[in-house]
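debug: dumping io for the single-chain case to check the tokenizer round-trip. Nothing else runs in this session.
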Amino acid sequence: MSSSTPDALLGPADIRELAAALGVRPTKQRGQNFVIDANTVRRIVRTAEVRPDDVVVEVGPGLGSLTLALLEVAERVTAVEIDDVLAGALPATVAARMPGRAERFALVHSDALQVRELPGPAPTALVANLPYNVAVPVLLHMLDMFPSIERTLVMVQSEVADRLAAAPGSKVYGVPSVKANWYADVRRAGAIGRNVFWPAPNVDSGLVSLVRRAEPVKTAASKAEVFAVVDAAFAQRRKTLRAALAGWAGSAAAAESALVAAGVSPQARGESLTVEDFARIAEAAAPRAAQQPTAAARRAASRTEESE
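debug: decoded output
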């Protein structure tokens, strides 16, 4: 069967037959909802702007609906699957339905959050129907581990899509919004109804497009330092930054000092700041952090002096 044959993709009957043959019952624990509509997966591939020279990594391929649609277009597809049964069956599904493209497919049987390398050429795109319960951690991990990924399109719970794509000032702007923006320009790219899944989820889904920044955020602070500020700011999002960052900085006065040095009002709240603002705060605090050891560091130094 050629890659252009419509029957190569999986329909509702195909999905149920495959699941029955494998004894697969989708589990809420792993957020499994299989796409059963060929038009939907082709739409995802089009929206992702997958090109013939792309090396695509897919997370959570399930029974292979999106995998097959990606193989119709991309140069190569590497799928990362944690489920033992699904991982064992997918290569055979690809070989049976797209034998002409089977050599362009690779499977990594692993938890995506543990993946640090992939076989073959470096991925240029990430396209995935991400399990709802781990969508944001997986997305951020993959963007961090594989800087060669230029374009990403993920299908996630609609609420998560809104958070990822939110702009400063929005009520749903928060940690996922800022951290995703560290890596990429993020936007909502469409909505997906519930009836294209089996089983149908209790929530709607959304598509999120992420295009890797042409230039990284300009800062002398590390990603870990910037993300620490972000986490602290939103841990108590109703408080002013002077109060919310007190624990992170060591005191409210130290937080205010860092904020003023960064050109940010101590009375502002995290939801009003851009990723660049958070980077300036982290950078402003870095010199003082180097000069003022933490209590743990002071205790460690004291123990060392006593033993000498």
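debug: round-trip ok. Residues 1-5, 288-308 have pLDDT under 50 and may be disordered.
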